[in-house]
User: What shape does this take?
Amino acid sequence: MASELVALVKHDCPVCDQVLPALDAAGVRVVSQSDPAQTAAQAARLGLRRVPEVDADLALSERLDPEAVPTVVLLDGEREEGRVEGLDRARIAELAARAGAHLDLDGLPERRPGCASRTRDPEVAARLAARAARREGRLRAREIEIGELEDVHEALLARGVTDGLPVVPPTPERVVGMLEGTSRHPQDVVGVLPPYDGEATVEKVAINAVMAGCAPEHLPVVLAAVEAACRPEFALHGLVATTHPAGPVIVAFGAGAGINAAGNVLGQGARANLAIGRALQLVVRNVGGGRPGIEDRAAHGQPGKVGLCFAERADGNPWPAPYERPTVMLMALEAPRLIVDQLAREPEGLAASFALALESVAHPKLRLAFDALLVVGPEHARVFAEAGWSRERLRDRLFELTTSPAGELVRGAGGSPEGVEARFVSDPAVPVAKFASPDRIQIVHAGGDAGLFSMVFGSWAAGEIGSAPVTAEVDAWA
Amino acid sequence: MGVTILDPTREAEAVARPLAPRAIPARIALVDIRKPRGDVFLDELEALLRERGYAVERAAKPTFTKPAPVDARREIAARCDAVIEALAD
Assistant: This one.
């Protein structure tokens, strides 16, 4: 098969205007990236004998993928034998000669850069990337058309796929952009989510991450959190279905991604914290099927169930990082509450204050059934740093201090019917631990520079009878 | 022109399943999900059912926080014709 010369042009490119008469006169096949009306108008304006073909859906442009037009390409069937992008008289003439054509380019500048190919227009490039992703099986999710007269936010709310707040509409273009945040294949399965055994592919997680407001750099953290949530020991099925207010809380260690670990660490204002936490909860809702008031039977819930993610603060951290590699830890937690101690300057006294707060998790008289996450603020952490207390020493001391005599915990003691069954209490003086073991108290360093405060989260039913903290490495999803 | 979005859900299709036959069960499983005082409720129920001549079998989940193990579910299904669970605290 003989080689064929093909030229790609567009209607609003002055360099295309300069080259087109010569291409037309030589009978070269010319294909325009512009629409039919624009192409016809350009042909009329330049007095061309033939109106260029229109590159419908930019199929040829996508295949040849030039940076600029005009581009003259020498094709042997599907095989490209040479190309010139922009105006380069000598090279175009040489390429034409190889195809047996003669181009009269006299009077044109020797060289002139072309104009950007329409395929390089960011909007068009995104559309083409989405189309390619669909064609290649990287995108498989069902497409939903939202009508022109519909408000997209209202339409998504009505479909029951949001948390009540507006979401970013997950267009194929945005989802393909989100997938740039991971090297994993979009059809890789991250995990299977209860209660309806929904398969969370990377693609489905990316769709929900777009909706949550994530940037691509957040995606590996979200994927790691979903992986953790699907582990059997996390017991997500029960966490979704419980009447307890707990939800999944993501704590990031060394994961970067702009996750706030400092001032207002548990509050608003940091996109990564809000969007990553929200993305996990949207995956739970949309892929797993846990909907508030239906499968999610929480009596009260808590504001963090919209999504809660924060990071351990490295700056001023008195303790070495607990994980060598970027890691997320997932815990099933209720809302945090404040521990005030503005007077303690010694670790023993501050630990005693923490212990009092930890005793109140769930109910002071309930023992061994709940874990806790203690978020030690930087000003409190300094007290332990100056005294040389390690994270483990603080944890072990808190475990020792959170014991109470059995007689104070028995049902009816203190006027409260809640507590330990009398048949388990043989000696009222016997100390009973609050937590099942020292490692049931997780300790994280986070918060703003100033404020002699720390925060404590109580867990949902913990350990083997409930949910255990789980970790996942972020790099596995980068 | 409207907007095309990608479905964020698991894209489940609802499957219609017929109700099980409403025959009088020969043997009823009373499953304790291990919530506090669920056993009190089931004790009462067992007594009432036995009074009425039903064969009753007791079973329990290991913990209320997790779904019943598949083996336990299959065993109950193989031995009994109906199940009553004590769900609440």
The helical segments of chain B are 38-51, 70-79. Residues 24 and 81 of chain B are 9 Å apart (CA to CA). The interface with chain A takes residues 1-12, 63-67 of chain B (CB under 8 Å). Residues 27-86 of chain B form one domain.
